[in-house]
Structure formats: structure tokens, C-alpha cells
Amino acid sequence: MDELDVLLRNERYPRSARYSARWMIDGAMGPNPVWQAEALAAVLPLEPGMRVLDLGCGTALSSIFLAKEYGVEVWATDLWVKPDENLRRVVEAQVEDKVHPIYAEAHALPFADDFFDAAVSIGAYHYFGTDDLYLGYFSRFVKRGGRIGIVQPGLAEEYETLPPPHLEPYWSWDFCAWHSAEWWRRHWEKTGLVTVDHADRLPDGWRDWLQWNEACDQDSGTPGQEAEMLRIDAGSTLGFTRVTAQRTS
Ligand SMILES: C[S@@+](CC[C@H](N)C(=O)[O-])C[C@H]1O[C@@H](n2cnc3c(N)ncnc32)[C@H](O)[C@@H]1O
Q1: What separation in Å is there between the alpha carbon of 153 and the centre of ligand 1?
Q2: What are the tens digits of pLDDT across the range 164-192?
Q3: Under DSSP, is residue 198 helix (H, G, I), strand (E, B) or coil?
């Protein structure tokens, strides 16, 4: 086991431990999507053969992980990362029969209504899903009774003013899209299109996030502001929000 693998050892994610830290860090676009995917799958049952949309999959690490670990077929859909690049990773991971890289914008998805058994989004849904009307579009690609699940950076609660004073030196304006689990519950339930069955702060999510950033910083040799922000906050405000819902019939 090399030094990076030791830095990313995390007993909360036993399935993720089977994947090399180098593979995860080289594909990183945000806090470890493989851990986040495992955390989501813990509350969103996935069965072999299910058709899963992974929207905003980035470098498709979460898609590859879900296909390998749960035997699902994944449409790895992203805007910033082109599908030929993701196809290379998919072939290297030997899951080209299970993971299909797709280039699409979240508002122009090239899928049939009711096609998927489940739709997930990891570290990405807050880029497009805070619009009140987006769930109505997104959910139609999932069969009635199918599941939708997201995990992404979030806040412990909704604050009257942002940023909380202790985070002021680190705050970027687009963190305004980070919301609490209860915010997402209400955001989805008010549509009447889904029943939210799980909405929480990932237990120890801030520790995972900090551990991830510290490993990435050590690997790059550059101490990052984000790790400092997470250390100072110590989980009082920042973490991961995890929400799952079922499309109503
Ligand atoms: C921070 S990256 C996270 C990627 C990956 N899920 C991960 O956790 O490493 C956010 C991803 O959201 C995707 N994204 C943002 N806006 C999008 C949009 N309008 N349509 C499709 N994908 C979008 C980007 O392409 C990007 O890969």
C-alpha cells in the first residue's frame, strides 16, 4: 500500500478501499466522488441490471464504482468532461459493457421519459438543481416508483446571512448554492412529484472532506485554502447533504 492509499484509508467506505488512491486523486474534480457514491448507495438500494443515470459524473469515477460494485448499468453524463475522455477511463476499468459516457447539458438530456430505474448526482446537482422547476424535468427520466439521489457539499442549516463570519475569508459567492438537508427536502417535496425518503447530513462528512483535501494537498505539495476552511469550521457549518426520493406514481 503506498502513502496515498494510507492517507485515504477510511473505514466508513469499505468498498471504496478497493480502488487505488492514485486513481481517485488523478480523476478528482471535488471531494472524493467514490466515497460520496458509496454513501449514497447506502441509502439508495441498487440492484444488478438497474439502469442508472449519473448526472454531472465528471470523470465518471462514481459511474465506474457503481457499475463495478452494484452491477448496475450507468449512463455517465457530463458537460465539462468529454465522453471520449471518460470512455478511456471506462475501458481501462473494464466496464465498457456497463458504463456509457454521454455528453449533455442538464437541461437537454438525450433520454426517453421513464427510462431509468434510478438517477443520481454526486457533487453536481447544486449546479443546476436549485431551480424550483428542475426536479420536474429531471424526475421524468426515472420510472414511476424509481429513485433519485444526490450528495453534495451542503450546510448544517439555512443561515439568515451568508457567509457565517468565521468562513468569511474563505467564502466564494457560488457557495450560496450549498443547502441543508431540510432545504432540499422542502425543495423537492413542494413539487408533489416525489416522496423524500432520506435527507441528512452525511455523518462525519466534513471529516471525509477534510481528509480528502489533505491527501490531495499533500500529493500536489500545495496547501489549499479549502482544507484550512474545513479545519476552522470543524463541521459546525460545512459537510455533505444527502437526499433520496422516490418518484410518485
Ligand atoms: C465539481 S464537478 C463534480 C464531478 C463529479 N461528480 C465529482 O464529484 O468528481 C461538477 C460537475 O457537474 C457538471 N455540471 C455542472 N453544470 C452542468 C450542467 N448544466 N449540465 C451537465 N453537467 C453539469 C460538470 O460538468 C462537472 O463535471
Answers
A1: 13
A2: 999 999 999 999 999 999 999 999 999 99
A3: strand
